[in-house]
Write a structure and sequence with these properties.
Belongs to the aldolase class II family. MtnB subfamily. Its EC number is 4.2.1.109. Pathway: Amino-acid biosynthesis; L-methionine biosynthesis via salvage pathway; L-methionine from S-methyl-5-thio-alpha-D-ribose 1-phosphate: step 2/6. Catalyzes the dehydration of methylthioribulose-1-phosphate (MTRu-1-P) into 2,3-diketo-5-methylthiopentyl-1-phosphate (DK-MTP-1-P). With about 200 residues, the protein is an alpha+beta fold. The protein has one domain: L-fuculose-1-phosphate Aldolase. About 35% of the residues lie in helices and about 20% in strands. It contains 5 helices and 8 strands, in the order H-E-E-E-H-E-H-E-E-H-E-E-H. It has an 8-stranded mixed sheet with strand order 3-2-1-4-8-7-6-5, with helices on both faces. Helix 4 links the parallel strand 6 and strand 7. The radius of gyration is 16 Å and the shape is globular. It starts with a helix and ends with a helix. Bound molecules: ligand L4RZE5RM and zinc ion (ZN).
Amino acid sequence: MSREQLAQEIIDAGRFLYGRGWSPATSSNYSTRLSADQALLTVSGKHKGQLGPDDVLATDLDGNSLEPGKKPSAETLLHTQLYRWKAEIGAVLHTHSVNATVLSRLTPGDHLVLEDYELQKAFSGVTTHQGQVLVPIFDNDQDIARLAAKVQPWLDDNPDCVGYLIRGHGLYTWGPRMSDALRQVEAFEFLFECELKVRSIANA
Ligand SMILES: CSCCC(=O)C(=O)COP(=O)(O)O
Ligand SMILES: [Zn+2]
């Protein structure tokens, strides 16, 4: 796919995710793999429902901008570490939904368990509702290099990981193509809402 097409995928993802209320205002960041050793990422601080072709830039997989004058997302390292982790990852989405934010704050400990939901099968590699999908929750940190260093051991120990939460902040998920990453955002959002409803009824 050309850079223009990959940029359009990011623009379209932003319109969709903003429209669903999962990427309000200037929150969130998105990327696609540009080549074996480069990513195309959103420029920092842009409204994600109003992205245009100039609102993306290329970086290397150490997170360095390859386009002077454009400021890469503050969370670039969280994207590039995923492209370095697995060669088959082609798109990464980070969103800031209300449900991801609230559920990550309500869940004590370092992970959330999703189990007995048919929709778990929307995640890559999951074929039954009977297993558990473990979603790690990392405490938020303004130092993204330090946060990435906490994420890396989990990825290395959990090669089937399909996404993670940052507490009080949002979701990261990914896939071979943008359509896969978008499907996983939708699945997570459905499951987060179910979890919050189940918990509120159980605690009533
Ligand atoms: C306004 S939300 C705070 C920053 C953030 O968490 C985010 O996802 C957007 O940061 P970026 O630098 O990619 O615009
Ligand atoms: Zn964020």
